Amino acid sequence: MKIFKPHFWYNKRQRNGVFFLLAVIVVLQFIYAFVDFSSEDEQNTTTDELIAFQYQIDSLKQIELENRKPKLFPFNPNYITDFKGYQLGMSAEEIDRLHNYRKQNKWINSVKDFKEVTKISDSLLAIISPYFKFPDWVVKRQNQKKNKVTKTSSSEKPIYSKVYKTSTNDINKATQQDFETVSGVGEVLATRIIKYRNKLQGYSLSSQLYEVWGLSKETANEVLETFKIVDKPIIAKVNVNTATFKEVLKNPYIDYELCKKIFEYRDEVAELQNISELRNIKDFPLDKYDRIVIYLEAK
Predict the structure, then answer these.
(1) CA angle, 60 as apex, 57 and 61 as ends, to 5°?
(2) Is 80 exceeded by the pLDDT of residue 47?
(3) Are 228 and 170 in contact (CB under 8 A)?
(4) Average pLDDT value for residue range 60-88
(5) Which end of the chain has fewer surrounding CB within 10 Å, N or C?
(6) Per-residue model confidence as pLDDT tens digits over 148-194
(7) SS3 letters across the chain
(8) Which of 1-15, 93-107, 243-257 has the least mean pLDDT?
(9) Is the distance from CB of 158 to CB of 152 less than 8 angstroms?
(10) In which band, very low, low, confident or very high, does the pLDDT at 10 lie, cut at 50, 70 and 90?
């Protein structure tokens, strides 16, 4: 009777191969467990080459950070917007103080004024104030004030400059040199006052002086202390009922849209019986009525 045995045990070559494979596995595990593969040589991270390379990386990072910073250019601090204020590093309260001050039709004319109005910190003011750019007439006035503060020794004789006497006190006849005698009025502002006077054909109301661009209320008050409307200008009024569109549009207080509404109203009523009927026009600027009617009439 034959006893059945697996074929595996009859293949001697296969048995030897299995034993060899097991031996290899045991040897590899032994080597992995007891042999140290780490390098004895430590990498030197303080070499001159690495230090120089790290310095270059830090320099490039610094350049990139500088490029990302918003660049500042000269600007008038009176016109700082919310976004501009945030870019400069101002707080919301400081920006609001500036805007509330400007809403009163007041102007900042020096770094000191900016500090007093906004209550900004000295450190931030020192950073942004070199970029402040004020109008030429403001700079000229500040220089004039500095020149007045001169120190003279007791041995020196005081030098008196010749005081210019105004040629008239009539604001409609005053010259540029006359206006420049007023504190705060330089060549630029004096020229603007005269140009606006020509546009209006003469100042008919003292309040029209406050409409001169760049002229602060305080400076305008000083001008009106010296110059008055002695003789009102003679202005040839335009008949609103017969005038052309172009003739009405020449009115310094009437723009295209308002002129269009006036003519639409004229077409609707056929003829204005009184110039005061302009008040009936929808969205008519009532605050400008007294100025508009200087140049218009209804016949």
Answers:
(1) 85
(2) no
(3) yes
(4) 74
(5) N
(6) 655 444 444 444 444 677 889 999 999 999 999 998 899 999 999 99
(7) CCCCCCHHHHCHHHHHHHHHHHHHHHHHHHHHHHCCCCCCCCCCCCCHHHHHHHHHHHHHHHHHHHHHCCCCCCECHHHCCHHHHHHHCCCHHHHHHHHHHHHCCCCCCCHHHHHHHHCCCHHHHHHHHHHECCCHHHHHHHHHHHHHCCCCCCCCCCCCCCCCCCCCCECCCCCHHHHCCCCCCCHHHHHHHHHHHHHHCCCCCHHHHHHCCCCCHHHHHHHHHHCECCCCCCCCCEECCCCCHHHHHCCCCCCHHHHHHHHHHHHHHCCCCCHHHHHHCCCCCHHHHHHHCCCEECC
(8) 1-15
(9) yes
(10) very low
Contacts with 241 (C-beta within 8 Å, 6 or more apart), sequence order: 266, 271, 272, 298, 299
Backbone angles phi, psi at 122, to 5 degrees: -65, -35
Helix axis angle, 92-103 relative to 111-118, nearest 10°?
110
All residues at 6 or more sequence positions from 108 whose CB lies less than 8 Å from its CB, including other chains: 77, 78, 98, 101, 114, 117
DSSP lists the bridge partners of residue 132 as: 75
Q: How far is residue 263's CA from residue 243's CA, in Å, rounded to a whole number?
A: 10
Domains and CATH numbers, the chain: 77-134 (no CATH), 176-226 (no CATH), 238-297 (1.10.150)
For the whole model, what pTM was predicted?
Answer: 0.46
The two three-digit tokens of residue 66, written as one number = 């500088």
Amino acid sitting at position 271: E
Structure tokens at 136: 């030429």
The string of pLDDT tens digits covering residues 93-133 is: 999 999 999 888 888 888 888 999 999 988 888 888 888 88
